Amino acid sequence: MARTARSTPAELAPAPWPDRHSTDPSAEVARQFVLNLHDAMGGRTLRDVAAQVGIHHVTLLKILHGRAWPDLATVSRLEIGLNADLYSSADVRADLARAASPSVRKSRPRAPSE
Taking a C-beta distance cutoff of 8 angstroms, is the pair 60, 50 a contact? Predict the structure, then answer.
């Protein structure tokens, strides 16, 4: 059975990837991951980082460009190999919770009871 095609993170976010916030929660988690990954790479090349963590440099390139969803094995290799926390959906979950919660209304003072 063929696998169902799904949009890439970059397709779910406004251009230019990864510079603009995505309204899609999964794409936003992927975007944050890529930003963290880019920071953790420092000035090292794709090939150097890929070799260090044990993944193919094309896999790393696709993730950075938002053309692939990183799997858990790749995420763990990158986090362990770079000694960095790259993945967290905490900020995205907090943003979603803020957006979903009703706005807090200022309460009007009550008239004194007689």
Answer: yes
What region does 42 belong to: left with phi over 0, alpha with psi -120 to 50, or beta?
left
- The mean pLDDT value for 71-88 works out to 96
Contact criterion met (CB below 8 Å) for 73 and 32 = no
CB 19 within 8 A of CB 76: no
Q: Which residue has the tokens 């944050």?
A: 32
Alpha-carbon distances of 92 from 11, 21, 55, rounded to whole Å: 18, 10, 27
What is the model's pTM? Answer: 0.82
What would the DSSP string read from start to end of 54-87? TS-HHHHHHHHTTSSPPPHHHHHHHHHHHTS---
